Amino acid sequence: MSVIRTTVSACCAWLLVASAWAFQPPPQREFVPVSQLPPTEQMPAAPLLISAYAFVWVALMVYLWTIWRRLNKVEADMQALERRMAQRSGTR
Amino acid sequence: MRRFFTPLAVLTALMLAYAPVLIANAPFESTMGLIQKIFYFHVPSWFAMFTGVFICGIASVVYLFKGRPQTDRLAVAAAEVAVVFGLIGLVTGPLWARKSWGVWWQWDAHLTMALIVELIFVGYLLLRAYGGPGSEKLSAAVAIFGMANVPFVYVSANIWRTVHPPTSVVPELGRTAPGMAGPFWYCVLAFMLLFTLLFSARTHLERRRAELDELYLDEEE
Questions:
Q1: Which of B87, B88, B208 has the CB atom closest to A71's CB atom?
Q2: Does residue A17 form part of some domain?
């Protein structure tokens, strides 16, 4: 009984290893330039480059907008305060 | 400065609008190809970041020793602009690395130190925002500590074994790749003008805030 169990276990182990082996890509034996790789293994540079430039522009525009918004708020507060102070000095 | 702001803004916008034309016409780097063109925005953003860090650090030293509030305002404005340019550098770098190294990030000395400097200045801004009264002096000390890290970031790629290209290629660019040097230094100039523009706008905001605070104090009296 134990012989059968051992044989079945060995066969299962062999099947697992064999399937992993079967799906292995062939070993690379020499230098392959990036330009000669199959299309599935090449990563396009353009989307990364465009993303980088787009991020630079978006980040700078958002930052410029936040400065403008904060400056507008300070100016509005200042005008409101000046009005309030002028009213107060007028009533005295 | 206000007199020069509009001409400077127009000049910077024109330079940045023309930069992609120069970058597109620059020669391709032989091993990296198209992705190397990120370098024209990535490296100048670090130039701008380090300029901001140095302004912040030196202004903080002056603030700690002389106690002049205007130097503190310069420091906080420079720190914020430095964080924005640092963020640009930290985002564009991994986009380049994904293609060149096959990974987004490597915890090597140069990249890690650059991230640490960025985090120090994010910490500086958080301290300024939430530290309450008296946080100016503590944040000035943080800024000096952050500034002291910059030379290490620069030399780390040259003296330690890192995956990052050595930073010493930049000064030698005119000799090693003359076709790339022109567009590169053009982009550096455009980014430094942009830095000057954002820094002056941010300093103006700090000055107006200080005036508003004085007005509030006057009102209370």
A1: B208
A2: no
In whole angstroms, give the CA distance from residue A27 to residue A10. Answer: 27
pLDDT at A72: 96
Q: Is residue A79 part of a domain?
A: yes
Q: Which residues contact B201 (CB under 8 A, 6 or more apart)?
A: A64, A67, A71, B5
A9 is a domain residue: no
Query: Low-confidence residues of chain B, pLDDT below 70?
Result: 1
- Residue contact A78–B194, C-beta within 8 A: no
Please enumerate in sequence order all residues whose Cβ is within 8 A of that of B199, keeping only pairs 6 or more positions apart, or say none.
Answer: B52, B55, B77, B78, B81
- Quote the minimal CA–CA distance from A15 to chain B in Å: 33
Say what the pLDDT of residue A39 is: 67
The verdict on residue A91 lying in a domain is yes
The pTM for the full model equals 0.83
ipTM score assigned to the predicted complex? 0.89
Number of domains in chain A: 1
